Amino acid sequence: MKDFLFVFRNDPAVMAGMSPEELQTSMKKWMDWIGGIAAQGKLVDRGNQLANEGNVVRPAKVVTDGPYIETKESVGGFIMVRAESLGEATEMAKGCPILSAGGNVEVRPIIRM
């Protein structure tokens, strides 16, 4: 078994435009999806949601505000899962609720150092 990182990207304006009821429904879908992965014994780390603000440090120690100034799409969070292959991890990611909100999931193998 190998470990994989799921990086969740979306437009933060989508969540900002949701009603409290829609946010609650969305959160339930996320918890059900993550719970399903955990029930299979394949959840390595529940990860966390990331704040919208931040800084990027570039070469020559140049600092810019916010990591997403060039795009509407931002990294919203991550989890780590365990799977036999990239294909299996990708199949797990296909159930992610972010897909129904126009977001995407980047699936990356983790290389332990």
TrEMBL record:
Pfam families tied to this protein: YCII
Q: Domain YCII-related: where?
A: 10-113
* Database matches in SUPFAM superfamilies: Dimeric alpha+beta barrel (SSF54909)
Q: Which family does it belong to?
A: Belongs to the YciI family.
| Name of the protein in question | YCII-related domain-containing protein
Q: Which organism is it from?
A: Dyadobacter fermentans
